[in-house]
Design goal:
Two copies of one chain form a homodimer.
Chain A: H1 9-26, E1 32-33, H2 34-41, H3 45-58, E2 61-63, E3 79-82, E4 89-94, E5 98-104, E6 110-117, H4 123-141, E7 150-155, E8 158-159, E9 166-168, H5 180-187, E10 192-196, H6 197-209, E11 214-220, E12 224-230, E13 233-235, H7 262-267, H8 269-282, H9 295-303, H10 307-331, E14 335-339, H11 347-360, E15 366-369, H12 376-391
Parallel strand pairs in A: 4-7, 7-10, 11-14, 14-15
Antiparallel strand pairs in A: 1-3, 2-3, 4-5, 5-6, 8-9, 11-12, 12-13
Helix pairs in contact in A: 1-3, 2-3, 6-12, 8-10, 9-10, 10-11
Chain A binds a DNA duplex (30 and 30 nucleotides) through helix 1 and helix 3.
Organism (chains A, B): Actinoallomurus liliacearum
Domain HTH iclR-type (chains A, B): 17-63
Family (chains A, B): Belongs to the ROK (NagC/XylR) family.
Amino acid sequence: MGDERAVGTPVLRRLNTASVLRAVRDCAPDPVRLAELVKLTGLTRPTVGQAVEDLVEAGWVQHHHPAAASRKGGRPAVRVSLRGRAAPVLGLDVGPHTVSAGIDDLAGRRLAAVRRSVDHNRASRLLTVVDAVIARVLEEAGFDADEIAAVVVATPGIVDSGSGRILLAPSVSGWTSVNLSDHLRDRFRCPVRVENDANLAALAVARERAGPGTLLAVQWGERLGAGVVIDGRLHRGTGAAGEIGFIRPPGRVPDTDDGRGPLERAIGAEAITEQARRAARTHPESVLRDGPIDAAAVFAAAATGDAVAERVVDDVARTFAHAIAPAVLVLAPDAVVIGGGVARAGPVLLAAITRHLADLTLTPPDVGISGLAEDTILTGALRMALDEVWHQLPA
Amino acid sequence: MGDERAVGTPVLRRLNTASVLRAVRDCAPDPVRLAELVKLTGLTRPTVGQAVEDLVEAGWVQHHHPAAASRKGGRPAVRVSLRGRAAPVLGLDVGPHTVSAGIDDLAGRRLAAVRRSVDHNRASRLLTVVDAVIARVLEEAGFDADEIAAVVVATPGIVDSGSGRILLAPSVSGWTSVNLSDHLRDRFRCPVRVENDANLAALAVARERAGPGTLLAVQWGERLGAGVVIDGRLHRGTGAAGEIGFIRPPGRVPDTDDGRGPLERAIGAEAITEQARRAARTHPESVLRDGPIDAAAVFAAAATGDAVAERVVDDVARTFAHAIAPAVLVLAPDAVVIGGGVARAGPVLLAAITRHLADLTLTPPDVGISGLAEDTILTGALRMALDEVWHQLPA
DNA sequence: GGAAGTTTATTAAGGTCTTTACAAAACCTC
DNA sequence: GAGGTTTTGTAAAGACCTTAATAAACTTCC
């Protein structure tokens, strides 16, 4: 957005070539006829031809010689498609319990994915697992580390987006003293970015929704985090944007010393089960009285109409709604999407939150559940890595 | 960001001409030598020469024949400057008590400004005053309505940014049924935009600070509103972003039927005086006991060390901090800037808010007072109008 | 099996724009 | 008034896109 300096004729070619490449990408995994590109880009055929030639030479796209089926008569079209292997990206999700990695090609196809659980969440052990997982996923996809075009790592805690240092990570002991960023930069010859996991989950959710608008994507499990995506771009603020776990909800909150924030202590997965347990003790008529209680059980009970469970869920929903209402009023997001473990609660929780938010805000956002599976964060990391590659095309 | 279609050689000229025009603008009121533009834009002299020629022809810039002083020897330079009168913009601030208007030229120089107070804040009367103020400011600046290049109107309430309709405006009775946007579009031949006043104030404050980052600018008087500016661009969300007046603060809030939000009823200017009045009754040792009390008096008393006043101010600050803390956690703004009537409270209030926010947030933002005078909103409106003009240069 | 028709690729000429290079102008200083 | 300096102005060259015309390759129909 800053200065667009030194404009000579050559930039035209770069502009147009980029335009053609974008068009090829938008046709994603399918090969596209050259004539199609002419229509898509609005450029003329000779220009497109030149651009494609350049792109093939640079290795970004490849020809599809066998123009097999669906002929309508006429000279067979030259068809090209993205050469995915030109710039594969690596995503990494370093959680307190599991480490997963994935490699996507330029078109967003998943070439490999690895998931490994960690027994002890000590930092040193974690780092070893990270290295092992990276090695495995590279092998599975058949790439050398030097071929990777961008790396994005998701980690819990607060990350300084400039240096990649982890500033605060209560859930992994010793994690802040590990310079993960430098560690990885030694292994790869490409940009390495470390980013908060909730932020990346938000990015993944936003991409799934597509289109512009403001999104508040909440990760809700033992802990609570959120990411803000505005018109497809992640909002970082001074760095710690989206840390909803530290919102102080109304009412008393138990004091703990594990670095969790007030809202996490009030309505994190653990707090929900604890609340249900207390309620079950004083209300033995509830189905919650027997069997082990966890958050899923509470939501299941509420779904079947158990009054005690319903009250707990409503309480949780109200606390959550009150906590985020000020942010919803300030941001006016189009949607609030909930992911993470608690998201499996489904419609019961959703309805309660929607109801309370309607009371507390002027233009209540859509409240929804993230449709993505467990690898939301990993997908977000890969998405951001792809963005990085696409952003610096003219390399 | 969408599609940059149909790139031929002519776009180069447009691009470079725009680049030169930007450079001329950045030198703002001072005329600039042609050779200087060459350095600033990175283009070559013939290119700059051509561009300047085009711009002069189009009326955007003008020559400065008398190359008077500061010669260093050599052929006298051709100097050009922005022809401010080429595209004057009109800003309007329609408040419940006053209507003000201003006209800026392209370089941001204030050519005229008019302010008029309104006795009855009935919508029909207000509209008459608006028309009169517009006529007056046009006359003062010596322009015809058709010459204005952009109009931005600030109004309290929630505005649909697409249609310009006012959706909610409790402070002016009947204001929502007036189609201000259409009314003005009939008078001007240029784009007319209606925007929430707090949003425009935020824009003005953000421009004063300059540079990127996230800003939460609060307007705090009888009512409370805010605007969010991210990297220089106003954030609207679904339309009602920044409506902090409707945040529900902890504790009981008096119920009124005047359309004000809970936070406004709790710590609006009126609520502050009411709170002080109550405190003075039970604490006759306070200096607040004698003389008429208004918000300014409370802050003044607190500044001199009056304990009762100090407690009131601290209460207000705590309520405010608790109310916006969730939004601060989610947005992680670089700064929270307070404007409006209460902003005159100064350091007393500021210090208290800063203290409380430090407790409630992870990366506490700078808390400051808006340095702009009473015409913050008007300045913001003019700023946005200028942006509009600059955004659509290639007209 | 050949001709017509259709779709696409290729090639050549023309125009616009920037760049490079060079010459002219205008002013100051000595 | 000569020399120097800074700037403007002009012409030729290079790069790129576009229009238009031509050639190619394949399907379909007769």
